Amino acid sequence: MAWFDKLKALFNFELNSPLISVNVTKNSDNAFQDREFVLDENKGQLIINYDKLNLDKKQKLRQIFRDKVEGGGEIFEINSFKLLSELYNYQKSKGEDKKILDFFSSLIPKEDLEALESSLFLRRKFNEKKDIRKLKEDIRRRFGDRGNNIANLCTAGYFEKFLIPLFNSSKEDFERIYEVVISKLVLVIFCS
Amino acid sequence: MAIVSLCRGIDMTETILTFDSSLKEEILGFFDKEVNTEGVIVEKFNPKQSVLSVDGQEVKIEEFGGIRKGSEVFIKNDLISLMRLSKQ
Question: Is B70 touching A (CB cutoff 8 A)?
Fold first, then answer.
């Protein structure tokens, strides 16, 4: 029996529409009261109250989780899944960000490009007034001060407003200055 | 343990199964994993063996974002790991 059929059998529910998501939660705010689960057919959501399950049901839920993974699927911590969903949407709607990434794809180190891509996503979330602190910290942890500098420069628009025009003006100047700017967060002002 | 490469993306048309962050340790228990004193996720019956992420790194409990098939590859929850996953 597939994992989903086991889930339906465990909680004895039937659906007239597709189930989009199942989340297992603790009943920390007593929102469930005494219920084992809440099913919202309109949203296609099933929320399971882990605290309410007896040992037998927890064991069966354990097997459902294992079946899901062993059947080739995945399980996610819910906030990770929300971020992953946002990233999938971002991949589909990169817009101008894709042009920036394409421009630098053969010009800068692979790690810098990866940091830049994450920074462009960070910038988009910043512009949407989302809390970006963890995203920024993730970039810093993975790429160190260099990644932190890339994130700061990207958020301020320096890749498209300074580095792209610099490359278009002089490839040699770009090659000289890029490393200095990124590693030391130094900005160069040209006077003519 | 061998490093496992992801070779396909996530099927977003399948029913998604998730869990609250507060249930991480319980969910790890479902897969016979536990957290050692240093906060690293390890095999319950072989605590010297830590689980590995896609890029062959140890995974700490606070980094734990999910599990996918392929010798139970552990997904880290940071932006860069999930960005790579979103491009599969």
Answer: no
